[in-house]
Amino acid sequence: MSGHSKWHNIQKTKGAADAKRSAAFTKIAREIIVAVKEGGNGDPANNSRLAAVIVKAKAANMPNDNIKRTIDKALGSGNADNYESITYEGYGPSGVAVIVETMTDSRNRTASNMRHYFDKFGGNLGASGCVSWSFDKKGVIVIEDEDEELDEDEVMMDALDAGASDYNKDDDVHVIYTDPDDFNAVTAALEGKYSFASAQIEMVPQNYQTLEKEEDIKNMQKMLDAMEDDDDVQNVYHNWEQ
After folding, report:
1. How far apart are CA 26 and CA 235, in angstroms?
2. pLDDT, tens digit, for every residue of 159-214?
3. pLDDT of residue 16
4. Distance CA 24, CA 59 (A)
5. Alpha-carbon span 98 to 123, nearest angstrom
6. Which residues on adjacent β-strands are paired with residue 125?
7. CB atoms within 10 A of CB 79
8. Using an 8 Å Cβ cutoff, are 50 and 39 in contact?
C-alpha cells in the first residue's frame, strides 16, 4: 500500500505519555464536552463526533468511568463550560508547515500564545489556509506491534475489509488510514481484535521536510514542546521529518 506514516516522527504530538497522561485526559475531556454539546446528545450511536472522540479516548487509555462522567457533565444543566475550536496555521524554522488545533474559552489568550510560540522559535503565524492545503484530513489508526506478533497481511486485509482506504507497516507499528466519514465504522470493526495505540481524525502531510541546521532543529522541537504543553492546544500537526 502507498505512503509512509512517519508515525515515529510525529507520535510525540499525539497520545498520552505517562508523564503527561493527566493533561492528555483533560484535553480529551474538553473534546468530549464540545462533541456532546454540538451533537446535541451523549449517545455515540447518534453522535458521530462523540463516537470518534471516544475511540481516541480509549486509545489513550482513558478509563471508561472518566468518559462517562465527562459525558454526564456535558449533559448537565449546570455545566458552564463554553469552548470554541480554532485552528492556527503557520511556519516553523525553514518553512516547516505547522497546523495547531485548539479548543479555548478565551480566543484572545490563545491567539496571543500561538503568535508568541511561532515568533519565539523562528517561525511565523500565517493566515488561515496557508499550509492546510498541503495536508489531507484522514482517520488514522495506529496499532503497535513491538514484538512483531501480528501478521502484516492479515492486519491489512482486516483493515481493507473494514473499509479502510490505505494501510502501511512502519517499523513496529501498523498504520491504517480511512476517509473521515468511514473512521467510526472502521474502528468499530477493528477494535475488538486489535489494541489501538492511537486513533483519531488527523491532518496528514502530503510531503515532508528535513531541517539541516542544528539551530533550526532545536527551535522546531522547542516550539512543538511549547505548543503541546499549552492547555488550549488539542493537536499539533507538521511536516517535519526528523
Report:
1. 13
2. 999 999 999 988 889 999 999 999 999 999 999 899 999 999 999 999 999 999 99
3. 45
4. 12
5. 10
6. 90
7. 13
8. yes
Lookup: cell for 141: 489508526
Half-sphere exposure of 96 (CA within 13 A, CB side): 28
Q: What is the mean pLDDT of the chain?
A: 89
Place of cell 492545503: 133
Over residues 23-30, mean pLDDT: 90
Q: Which amino acid is located at 197 in the chain?
A: A
Grid coordinates belonging to 120: 519565539
Instruction: State how far the Cα of 160 lies from the Cα of 143, in Å rounded to an integer.
Output: 15
pTM of the model: 0.87
- What whole-number distance in Å separates Cα of residue 109 and Cα of residue 141? 32
How many CB atoms within 10 Å of residue 221?
Answer: 17
All cell numbers assigned to 98: 505547522
C-alpha cell recorded at residue 170: 512502519
Q: Which secondary-structure segment (H or E) carries 139?
A: strand 135-144
The edge-to-edge listing of strands for the beta sheet with 135-144 is 166-170, 173-178, 135-144, 198-205
